[in-house]
């Protein structure tokens, strides 16, 4: 194998196997998309008068320093949507502090941190972590109703008290909106329903706009819509987007219409604009049993996964009903689903050996790190695995480099998914003390030899 041109990439970022970027050729290897495991109980329930309809994660969860912070929506039969604030030190047990800002039924003893202006409703808040702005390190975008209908932007010092600056910035945009929780190339990014969407297409779609100052926004560009492989009634209710290592990832919120149910599908992009769908378009998180709190509607928060102890934590919103289902049948809560770091997809070989050849790459120096699980069945005990991974290093001509053959490689045979340690571990070769650092600045190809194991990612470690 000797493809001509090296792949241009920052190899110090994890290279995932969600698409074929890093597969020049392979044999007896299959791609597996994985689902996170759901925490068995909701992590946040409706237990206050202002939440008695259902808490909803048309909002954001961030981990800033040692503190988890959550912004979520609530509404009742008698009051419009409002934004509430919660915080946690472990991400499981959440506190709802009395903020004393807004009045509800005669009292300010509540955790409401934001309500719409002039009696209008508020919906779909996305909070942005902006640490470069020391004075206002948090921004937020949300939809508001009333006379000033559209998307508004606000800012905060602590996430509890919000300053209405600059206010309404995108009049006429629709209510279901997500933002990227961190700036992308110095710009704030909105994914939402641009004006004219229903008029031009007749269905819900996702458009992107961006801004450097929250005031002036680019012309919206349509980035996601259903295609001929979808059911004709399927609509894209919304989509999230976030940067994860070498890729942009996101979750389409799929609205099936008949039956009226919603779920999430993983999508990816190399530039944040041209989005691709995974095959065979699996559901990222399964619905709960029919009638349960997450049995009908399931959407993920805007912030993407929180990396925590070698795992990715995804916070999601579940409801027992969708559109037009009356109280109390439409109840819900907020849940947590957990996956190993880089664990979106793996390349798996089963009983016999499989091989994956990468395209050529210019090695930046440092060790070769891999994220691998040497178990055929991932439900097995973490320490019970019979598989292994070996790596062969070839030059640009396809010839194996001396001392870097598969038989020279010290195999990886342990499950590296530790709650307290790294999941990407170095590959080593016998009698090669400097390892891959020996090939710094050179064009190489990697050949992964896999048996009864799942390979999730590879990257270059620090020199």
Q: How many runs of DSSP E, i.e. beta strands?
A: 35
Envelope shape: elongated
CATH class of the largest domain: Mainly Beta
SS class = mainly beta
Question: CATH homologous superfamily name of the largest domain?
Answer: Glycosyl hydrolase domain, family 43
Mean pLDDT: 94
Helical residue percent?
Answer: under 10%
| Radius of gyration, whole Å | 24 Å
Approximately what portion of the residues adopt beta-strand conformation?
A: 35-45%
How many domains make up the 3D coordinates? 2
Biggest sheet: strands, sense, closure? 6 strands, antiparallel
CATH architecture of the largest domain: 5 Propeller
- Specify the number of helices: 1
Please mark out the parts with pLDDT under 50 across 5 or more consecutive residues, or reply none: none
State the CATH topology of the largest domain.
Tachylectin-2, Chain A
In whole angstroms, the N-to-C terminal distance is 28 Å
Q: What does this protein look like?
A:
The chain is mainly β and 463 residues long. It folds into 2 domains: 15-34 and 345-460, Jelly Rolls; 37-340, 5 Propeller (Tachylectin-2, Chain A), CATH 2.115.10. It contains 1 helix and 35 strands. It has one helix spanning 197-201; strands spanning 15-16, 25-27, 30-33, 37-38, 56-64, 67-76, 79-88, 112-114, 122-129, 138-144, 150-156, 162-171, 178-179, 188-192, 206-211, 221-224, 235-239, 242-244, 247-255, 262-269, 275-277, 297-300, 306-308, 311-319, 332-340, 345-349, 354-357, 361-362, 368-373, 388-394, 409-410, 425-426, 428-429, 443-451, 453-460. Strands 1, 3, 26, 29, 32 and 35 form a 6-stranded antiparallel beta sheet that branches. Strands 2, 27, 28, 30 and 34 form a 5-stranded antiparallel beta sheet that branches. Strand 19 and strand 20 form a beta hairpin. The longest helix is centred in the middle third of the chain and has 5 residues, at 197-201. It is elongated. The mean pLDDT is 94.
């Amino acid at each position: 194998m000797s493809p001509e041109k090296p792949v241009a990439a920052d190899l110090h970022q994890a290279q995932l196997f969600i698409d074929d970027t890093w597969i020049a050729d392979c044999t007896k290897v299959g791609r597996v998309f994985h689902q996170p495991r759901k925490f068995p109980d909701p992590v946040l329930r409706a237990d206050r008068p202002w939440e008695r309809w259902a808490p909803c994660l048309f909002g954001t969860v961030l981990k800033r320093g040692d503190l988890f912070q959550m912004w979520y929506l609530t509404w009742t039969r008698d009051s419009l949507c409002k934004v509430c604030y919660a915080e946690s030190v472990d991400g499981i047990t959440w506190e709802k502090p009395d903020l004393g800002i807004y009045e509800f039924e005669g009292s300010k003893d509540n955790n409401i941190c934001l309500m719409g202006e002039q009696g209008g409703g508020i919906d779909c808040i996305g909070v942005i972590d902006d640490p470069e702005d020391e004075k206002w390190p948090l921004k937020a975008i949300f939809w508001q109703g009333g006379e000033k209908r559209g998307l508004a932007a606000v800012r905060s010092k602590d996430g509890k008290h919000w300053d209405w600056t600059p206010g309404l910035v995108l009049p006429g945009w629709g209510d279901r909106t997500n933002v990227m929780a961190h700036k992308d190339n110095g710009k704030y990014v909105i994914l939402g329903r641009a004006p004219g969407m229903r008029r031009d297409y007749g269905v819900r779609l996702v458009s992107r706009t961006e801004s450097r100052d929250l005031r002036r926004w680019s012309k919206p560009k349509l980035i996601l819509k259903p295609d001929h492989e979808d059911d004709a009634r399927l609509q894209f209710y919304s989509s999230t987007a976030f940067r994860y290592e070498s890729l942009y990832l996101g979750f389409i919120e799929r609205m099936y219409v008949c039956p009226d149910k919603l779920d999430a599908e993983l999508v990816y992009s190399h530039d944040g604009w041209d989005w691709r769908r995974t095959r065979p378009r699996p559901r990222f998180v399964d619905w709960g049993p029919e009638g349960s709190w997450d049995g009908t509607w399931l959407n993920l928060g805007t912030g993407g996964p929180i990396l925590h102890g070698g795992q990715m934590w995804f916070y999601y919103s579940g409801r027992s009903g969708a559109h037009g289902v009356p109280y109390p049948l439409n109840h819900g809560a907020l849940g947590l689903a957990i996956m190993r770091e880089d664990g979106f997809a793996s390349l798996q070989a089963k009983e016999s050996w499989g091989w994956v050849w990468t395209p050529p790459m210019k090695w930046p120096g440092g060790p070769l790190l891999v994220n691998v699980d040497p178990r055929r069945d991932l439900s097995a005990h973490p320490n019970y695995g019979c598989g292994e991974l070996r790596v062969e290093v070839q030059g640009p001509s396809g010839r194996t480099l001396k001392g870097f053959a598969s038989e020279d490689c010290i195999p990886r045979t342990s499950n590296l998914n530790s709650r307290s340690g790294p999941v990407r571990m170095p590959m080593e070769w016998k009698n090669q003390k400097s390892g891959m650092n020996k090939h710094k600045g050179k064009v190489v190809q990697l050949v992964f030899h896999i048996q009864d194991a799942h390979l999730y990612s590879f990257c270059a470690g620090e020199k």
